[in-house]
Automatic annotation (TrEMBL):
Lineage top rank: taxon: Bacteria
InterPro entries according to UniProt: Uncharacterised_YueH
Protein name per Swiss-Prot or TrEMBL: YueH-like protein
Taxonomic placement: Bacteria, Bacillati, Bacillota, Bacilli, Bacillales
Entry-linked Pfam families: YueH
């Protein structure tokens, strides 16, 4: 599991990223906003799906920023 720090409006949020290579899944969780998301390696249009899920918890602007960062972090894995 990787733990990344996301800074928004001067606040630090921990973003937990777990990769299950055997089942080809990635689980993302941000406890501060009570949000988690699971996707497969094969998933299409992950950015759109992340945005839709995140905007239920945060503003659209924040959802775009967090979603982009999550995609970058998961591609590094």
């Amino acid at each position: 599991m990787k733990i990344r720090k996301n800074f928004m409006e001067g606040l630090e949020q921990k973003v937990y990223i777990h990769e299950n290579k055997k089942e080809e899944l990635i689980l993302i969780a941000i406890p501060d906003i009570e949000w988690s998301y699971l996707f497969t390696y094969e998933a299409e249009d992950i950015q759109k799906d992340l945005f839709q899920s995140l905007k239920r918890r945060v503003t659209e602007e924040k959802a775009e920023v967090i979603g982009s960062r999550i995609l970058q972090w998961t591609r590094e894995m």
